[in-house]
Design goal:
- By secondary structure, the chain is an alpha+beta fold.
- The protein folds into two domains: 233 residues, Zn peptidases (Aminopeptidase, 3-Layer(aba) Sandwich), CATH 3.40.630; 88 residues, Elongation Factor Tu (Ef-tu), domain 3 (Beta Barrel).
- The chain is built from nine helices and 17 strands.
- A hairpin with a 3-residue loop joins strand 6 and strand 7.
- Helix 7 crosses helix 9.
- The longest helix is centred in the middle third of the chain and has 17 residues.
- The protein binds cobalt (II) ion and zinc ion.
- Cobalt (II) ion binds next to loops.
- The site of zinc ion has 6 residues, from helix 5 and strand 13.
């Protein structure tokens, strides 16, 4: 799990992925025939295959976070969200501010003891929080600038049968792709395989959009998280996916309707190889699959999703068995690719 720990510890909010990108390039290089980056910062690995059918698998390297838009004279930092930040997740957190050096900070807001009855009823917005670095104003202004980024200060750890960390969305996708490449090493592939770690997914699948235009995939598989609402509160029909019940094959989300023949093919392989799987429909939001299908000629796409509780929080939680199932399913699919025609 050392690699997953490293991937989650690396930082990189959308558009500022340099830290995590360097790690991914290093890890991917020995596993592919060629690896490149593009002007957006996407990392594109390539492995030769027998047929010229192009399979692109994509996981996004960016994580949600905050960007500093104001520094006051006392040194308190004001922030804006980058990606879908739920303001409730900001309360009482430790963060890392990426200034001239990495600075530990805490997130503060007006204490409940002095809130009016009216104020107590209102939901807090991101603008109601600030970051305190514990330094005087002049010192902060020397070290931090407007445009610097902020990430959660939260470590990867194991709880029960699960892992919990910041940034599983979507470092777990990148991890699954890298582990799949490891298992495919030395094996002849039936199709050309591009392994892509994309940028800027959390702000609207921007890295995958340009990747799709450049690579023109025939088949696109995004590897990303989906919601596992198998927790107290949501009704059974709102669970979307369940922890420990295997890799989730996406049928639909807000950005893509998976190619039904491709979905069937994946399920057939999972059954043959006795890999645990479930189906998943996410009413809102999307993955890189939404961009991969919109290349010039269109592509058959779906997403292999890793069920995740508390998505977009610093305590995202995933099940060990689902990680293994996702890797196994991706590997089995790649080795079986190129035989089926997904034209509808
Ligand atoms: Co996300
Ligand atoms: Zn994601």
């Amino acid at each position: 799990m050392e690699l997953l720990r490293k991937l989650t510890a690396a930082t990189g909010i959308s558009g500022r992925e340099e830290d995590v990108r360097a790690l991914i390039i290093k890890e991917m290089k020995p596993l592919v025939d060629d690896v490149k980056t593009d002007v957006m910062g996407n990392v594109i690995g390539y492995r030769k295959g027998k047929k010229d059918t192009r399979l692109v698998m994509a996981g996004h390297m960016d994580e949600i976070g905050l960007i500093i838009n104001h520094i006051d004279d006392k040194g308190f930092l004001r922030v804006l969200p980058v990606g879908g930040i739920d303001p409730r997740t900001l309360m009482a957190q430790r963060v890392v501010v990426h200034g001239k050096k990495e600075l530990d900070g805490v997130i503060g807001t007006k204490p409940i003891h002095i809130l009016s009855e009216e104020e107590k009823k209102k939901a807090l917005k991101v603008e109601d929080y600030f970051i305190d670095l514990g330094l005087p104003g002049e010192e902060v202004k020397k070290l931090v600038s407007v445009g610097d980024t902020v990430t959660w200060n939260r470590e990867f750890t194991e709880i029960g049968d699960c892992y919990t960390s910041k940034a599983f969305d979507d470092r777990i996708g990148v991890y699954v792709i890298l582990e799949a490449l490891k298992k495919l090493k030395g094996k002849e592939l039936p199709v050309e395989v591009y392994a892509v770690a994309t940028v800027q997914e959390e702000v609207g699948v921007r890295g995958a959009t340009t990747t799709a235009i450049g690579l023109e995939p025939d088949i696109g598989i995004a590897v990303d998280i989906t919601l596992a609402n198998d927790i107290p509160g949501p009704a059974e029909h709102q669970q979307i996916s369940r922890l420990g019940e295997g890799a989730a094959i996406k049928i639909m989300d807000g950005h893509s309707i998976s190619n039904p023949k491709l979905v069937k093919h994946l399920a057939k392989i999972a059954e043959k190889k006795k890999i645990k799987y479930q189906y998943e429909i996410l009413p809102r939001g999307g993955t890189d699959a939404g961009a991969l299908q919109r290349s010039t000629k269109g592509a058959a796409v779906t997403t292999i999703s890793i069920p995740t509780r508390y998505a977009h929080s610093p305590v995202e939680t995933i099940h060990k068995d689902d990680v293994k199932a996702s890797i196994d399913l991706l590997v089995a699919f790649i080795l079986d690719a190129g035989k089926e025609n997904y034209t509808l």
